[in-house]
């Protein structure tokens, strides 16, 4: 059974204007694949990197990295996903479309009480927070941590999650309105990026610094993030919304107090089916128990994907953004 569906197409790498409405024809799901009818599509910074060419695609392509919907058909060899299942699609490209064929081993069944819009808004983001705070550089009760972009989709979840773990959260934001939003979601001390946030972090920690900084901004915050670390602290650089950090000499880490730097990705922390299901299960459990509340700050239609990217890159979004097919 083939199907022709509306999609966003990428014929060249570049700015948001290269995202154009189009149509794609889907063949039968191949071996190990399932066809999913998308009900909601996530907007992640990964999609921006993909569009811009930082993570190149074979063009032309339908971009995207996450969505949620219902399974319409399964290919040969698929045994743990059934037609009719509500699932999160935790892989791409191809998500910016009404429907897609996806590897079945990267689909996760949605538990009762988690709707498709919530799943698209939060699954990958909450799973990112899970591996950042619990497995990459684990947060301990009583610690104070610094989390950048605290009012973003990942940041709002991280603030709540860290609070549930018993940590105190200092977060950076770009506006007073975002500071209020972060505060309402568990950020103990939101700081404006335009202010002297390094000085405030040092002041709030009695001059010692924090044991961990979680930084998705990149170039404009990297060295200042290092300056916020306590001796033998760790900088977790998990994104680059302002660009990739400049090269540095390893001796810099010694001068900052024998600190550590890591650049983790979801691919390495959910590399196997078992790891994927465990991380998703933990994320959905935190949401279902009310320890994490998901904020969908804005929605766009599929044909408005370019505007969604402009809003994300222009820091005009708060919380998670969902694209509706």
Notes on the protein architecture:
Helix content is 30%, strand content 27%. The chain is an alpha/beta fold and 325 residues long. The strands form three sheets. Strands 3, 4, 5, 6, 7, 14 and 15 form a seven-stranded mixed sheet that branches. Strands 10-9-8-11-12-13 form a six-stranded parallel sheet, with helices on both faces. β12 (229-237), α7 and β13 form a beta-alpha-beta unit.
Average pLDDT taken over every residue:
97
Estimate nothing, just give the exact number of structural domains: 2
> Which geometry do the CA atoms define?
globular
- The CATH class designation of the largest domain is Alpha Beta
Number of helices, counting only DSSP H or I runs of 4 residues or more: 10
Say which CATH homologous superfamily of the largest domain is assigned: Medium-chain alcohol dehydrogenases, catalytic domain
CATH fold node name of the largest domain:
Quinone Oxidoreductase, Chain A, domain 1
- Give me the CATH architecture of the largest domain, please: Alpha-Beta Complex
User: What is the H/E order?
Assistant: EEEHEEEEHEHEHEHEHEHEHHEHE
Low-confidence segments, given as residue ranges, are none
């Amino acid at each position: 059974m083939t199907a022709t569906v509306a999609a966003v197409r990428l014929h060249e790498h570049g700015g948001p204007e290269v995202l154009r409405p189009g149509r794609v024809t889907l063949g039968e799901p191949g071996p190990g694949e399932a066809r999913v009818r998308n009900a909601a599509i996530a907007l992640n910074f990964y999609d921006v990197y993909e569009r811009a060419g930082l993570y190149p695609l074979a063009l032309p392509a339908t971009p995207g990295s996450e969505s949620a919907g219902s399974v319409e058909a399964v290919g040969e060899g698929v045994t743990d996903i059934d037609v009719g299942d509500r699932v999160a699609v935790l892989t791409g490209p191809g998500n910016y479309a009404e429907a897609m064929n996806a590897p079945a081993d990267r689909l996760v069944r949605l538990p009762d009480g988690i709707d498709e819009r919530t799943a698209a808004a939060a699954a990958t983001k909450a799973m990112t927070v899970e591996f950042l705070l619990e497995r990459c550089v684990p947060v301990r009760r009583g610690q104070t941590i610094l989390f950048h972009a605290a009012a973003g989709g990942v940041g709002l979840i991280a603030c709540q999650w860290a609070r549930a773990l018993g940590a105190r959260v200092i977060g950076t934001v770009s506006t007073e309105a975002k500071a209020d939003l972060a505060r309402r979601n568990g950020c103990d001390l939101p700081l404006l990026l335009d202010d002297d946030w390094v000085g405030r972090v040092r002041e709030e920690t009695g001059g010692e610094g924090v044991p961990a900084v979680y930084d998705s901004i990149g170039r404009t915050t990297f060295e200042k993030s290092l300056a916020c670390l306590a001796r033998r602290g760790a900088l977790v650089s998990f994104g680059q919304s302002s660009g990739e950090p400049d090269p540095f000499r390893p001796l810099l880490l010694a001068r900052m107090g024998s600190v550590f730097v890591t650049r983790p990705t979801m691919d390495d922390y959910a590399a196997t089916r078992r790891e994927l299901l465990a991380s998703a299960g933990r994320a959905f459990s935190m949401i279902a128990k009310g320890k994490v509340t998901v904020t969908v700050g804005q929605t766009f239609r599929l044909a408005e994907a370019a505007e969604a990217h402009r809003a994300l890159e222009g820091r005009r979004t708060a919380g998670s953004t969902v694209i509706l097919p």
